[in-house]
Amino acid sequence: xxxxxxxxxxxxxxxxxxxxxxxxxxxxxxxxxxxxxxxxxxxxxxxxxxxxxxxxxxxxxxxxxxxxxxxxxxxxxxxxxxxxxxxxxxxxxxxxxxxxxxxxxxxxxxxxxxxxxxxxxxxxxxxxxxxxxxxxxxxxxxxxxxxxxxxxxxxxxxxxxxxxxxxxxxxxxxxxxxxxxxxxxxxxxxxxxxxxxxxxxxxxxxxxxxxxxxxxxxxxxxxxxxxxxxxxxxxxxxxxxxxxxxxxxxxxxxxxxxxxxxxxxxxxxxxxxxxxxxxxxxxxxxxxxxxxxxxxxxxxxxxxxxxxxxxxxxxxxxxxxxxxxxxxxxxxx
Length: 333
Description:
Layout: H1 2-13, E1 33-38, H2 47-60, E2 63-68, H3 75-88, E3 92-95, H4 100-112, E4 117-120, E5 132-134, H5 137-152, E6 156-162, H6 168-181, E7 187-189, E8 194-195, H7 200-213, E9 219-222, H8 227-238, E10 246-250, H9 254-262, E11 267-270, H10 273-288, E12 297-299, E13 303-305, H11 313-319, H12 321-329
Parallel strand pairs: 1-2, 1-3, 3-4, 4-5, 5-12, 6-7, 6-8, 6-9, 9-10, 10-11
Antiparallel strand pairs: 11-13
Helix pairs in contact: 2-10, 3-4, 5-6, 7-8, 10-12
């Protein structure tokens, strides 16, 4: 009940898109650059990217940042936000692309107007964007698949959770998983990918329906968020044995951490949104200074979070940001 109330408050407050990172929108001093970072939608997974983005701005100096997210996870909503930033005349944009097809034109327009734009978390590879900073999603799917095989000896009936059937990053992760599982004849995908929704409540309801449809299910492999949370909470509430379903997540949202510590989630693929935002801030500044990257993608890496390291992986991303920046510098000339 508390979770439902919390999400209702979040959605109510999100009717108007606002900067949502710690400190809100910064006051812009004369001569300062204004950089904007945009998430796919309102969700706590994206918040560390804004924190990393703000850290980069403070380290560089002379930059103010804003963080915003559309209330609807659509290309149309994001397009309107980017158009507003173009009209405002911001100096740089970091965008987590929700729909590459819908966003390509407005990305190209920003670049044409002299507003550098980088993408993070998900990309519009055919656009004029400067660079994509984020996860090598196929490789991450392979890492997840190999972890699940290690846990299960390559035996079991499984499903894959996603948020959306069209997002390129989810397709790449799914392909990585399937390519690993294809090597094991006793790994059986019982249905096509399952939609996990974008709120914990949806995840619980869908997990319940999934187990009713496939009572012999033994493995769930997540490629986004909420599915593993829903499965954990449903199993706990029904009193199911913790080891009856191998449940592997993405993210280290509080519910995932809770599920790992309780033994209902065996591990999670943790991306590096903090690093994505941190590097995006530097990329925009370097581009303005005349530097250019020699590649159109940069892998920000993943970590497998388990019961042994779940309390340290997020801080690991924060602490590792300077080293990641040194690697990032090597591709800029």
